[in-house]
Amino acid sequence: MGRVIRLEDLEVLVCCGAGGVGKTTTAAALGVHAAAHGRRVVVLTVDPARRLTQALGLPGLGHEPRPVSGVGGAGGGSLDASVLDMRQTFDDVVRAHAPEGTAHRVLDNPVYQTLSTSFAGTQEYMAMERLGQLRDEAAATGRWDLIIVDTPPSRTALDFLDAPRRLGAFLDGRLARTLARPARMGGSVLEATLGRLVGRGLLADVRAFVSATDTVFVGFRDRAEATAGRLRQPGTAFLVVATPERDALREASYFVQRLHEDALPLGGVVVNRVVLGTGELSAGRAEAAAEQVSDPVVAALLRVHADRADTARRQQRLVRAFRSGRPGLASVQVAERPDVVDLPGLAGLAEDVLAPG
Amino acid sequence: MSLHVLTGKGGTGKTTVAAAMAVALAAPGRRVLLVEVEGRQGISQVLDVAPLGTEERTVTAGLAGGEVTGLSVEPSAAFVEYLRRFYRIGGSATGGLLRRAGVVEFATTVAPGVRDVLLTGKVYDEVRRYDEVVLDAPPTGRIGRFLDVSRHLADLARVGPVHRHARVVRDLLHSPATRVHVVTTLEPMPVQETTEALAELRESGLPLGSVVVNRVRSLQDAAVLIDGLPTEALVARELAAARLDPALASSLLAGGREAIARWEQEHTLGAEVAGLGRPVLHLDEMAEGIGPGEVHALAHQLREQGWGG
Fold this sequence. Notes:
- The complex is a heterodimer.
- By secondary structure, chain A is an alpha/beta fold.
- Chain A contains 14 helices and eight strands.
- In chain A, helix 6 (122-141) crosses helix 10, helix 9 (189-198) packs across helix 10 and helix 12 (283-292) packs antiparallel against helix 13 (296-324).
- The N and C termini of chain A lie close together (5 Å).
- The mean pLDDT of chain A is 84.
- An eight-stranded mixed beta sheet of chain B has the order 3-4-2-5-1-6-7-8, sandwiched between helices.
- The mean pLDDT of chain B is 88.
């Protein structure tokens, strides 16, 4: 079985998977590794745990990429890290696409202000928009040659792929046209109905928002289309992260399937936190020996081992079942590591991820 | 009527705990609904039943008799129902007009957050029809936004039926009928997210319930080890006496050191959880995975700890 990815071939790496599987940590670890091998890397994380930002030496990390010190160095590599800030990213979209002098009309609109910060779903779109922004900056300044993106921890992580279609359906639909039209005396049945539902005050706000954002949306749709398109080009890979548990592997199956349907380049699957190295002594033999030995502490050691061997056997059964239906899929199992709390720990994790599976 | 909302870091077993709570609550004459909102079909997986749809149906029996009804709430069905139920227009010509105009598409997919409005609105609707509703809610990272979407909407739509409805949903979620429980395991990141989620929920004025520590392992053997590990030579001798390869001694000791480290970590984290100022419930790890039998066993553990009585 081959490696899940070869970082040296990549410009963009997108990590996806269920929550709690070590996705963000894996993304950061690969960043540390690539930087140590001379790459100029930026890692975009979504809602990283404080422990991870501490491991990177960057407490209070935010929207602006900041350099992680202590990686790269002699080889010319570097690592920057940033956290997805939905509002900031959305504001940048508006500023970039709104016609001269109209950006404030959107930014001050109450519908926009709520939409950009309070509502779920924005995160998925904005993660991809931010990828586009970082890519543009990389192309313009040469600051980075590898972008690693973490995605929100849910199935909807790949909803951004639908953004162009969804926005298209909306923009070309009658709702958008109705709303974008100036209010008339009397108005249409549709307007009257909407007004009755949400109140005329909100309808006016929405109307103002839609007409002001019409061009922004068109720009955003074009951009989302371009971003999704570029994800299919060489130099991009997706990495699906899981743990050897039923739920996490089921989510991994979903992502593998979804990437396949969308013809996106899947590198492979990383199974994190696997109990490895219990093979020389089976759970059954350890249990039996625990009954025989005279020293109670040695008996406890044998029972601890038996538990681990039992867990290992169950995990391997799940991983085998997961892999059996996908013979061509590269995958790698990574041992449980208690030491992923600093840069050497992250680098060690990356070595395991990049080892031939 | 009451609403139990389950959140927690991804991977901590939210769905399992939600199912166990529903089973613990159900009794003859006590109608219990178990709802999921993310379309993951987690409930049908843990209870080993056919995938749930938008129609309610019985998924398992209650611990004390009665039954648990299951439901997977899906945004576009919720939207059509929302229109029909509250504005009596879903089935009418106006409903068709909204659909053709792209309002349904807009509401359920393009407009981020409208989805949450629809999902919480549907949950509100169900709470009025059942004695107990257990909601398998989004994870800690998104729970505040999810539960407070109605508050934001009530601020945005200042009049009209959407405003009125958003307000009643907000009022329910902020009332004593609601309890938000946070599920964690004794690992650093889940405990940290639990601490942060409690602070966020408290700040939003959402009513807090218990912290559920899930997947508690038996640490009996580790407790024997913490007084000191034997020398490698001693372990090797004992192994040889039991007709095992003495060379295994070093890997057994490494496993022992790891078990001790975990024991210490779990102790520290357990104390941290106890200090969060919320009632704490413990549920054992189910080593063979989760099925209906395990869910009932966990429900029993909840009752033994005085929960759901």
